[in-house]
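hey so u asked for the seq, here:
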Amino acid sequence: MDAKELYEKIDEYMDKEVTLEGWIRNHRKQKEFGFIATVVNSNKNFSDYKPKGKLVVMFGSEADGLCNELLNLADEKLTIKMANNVESLNLALCAGIVLYKLQE
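ran it, structure tokens below
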């Protein structure tokens, strides 16, 4: 592929409206990644999760969590076990815990 063809491909891609939801749907069809969502209340504990292959981990905001559209696209909804007197974890702390556990 020469430079002109490359620029045409980039222009073609940039002209398409790509949403996060659309990107996830596309990659789920291709089974390229597993998609997990971190949620406050789930009966599945993250510490028990055994990843298989490449993952996309979705984190929501502290106040609102993930939107329903993204939650519905997740293969797994997982919760980080917390002490009884803790309502939620800071997003950065949650991401750090998840990424550390995934690399073990």
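Residues 3-103 form a domain with the Alpha/beta knot fold (CATH 3.40.1280.10). The radius of gyration is 17 Å.
lmk if thats what u needed
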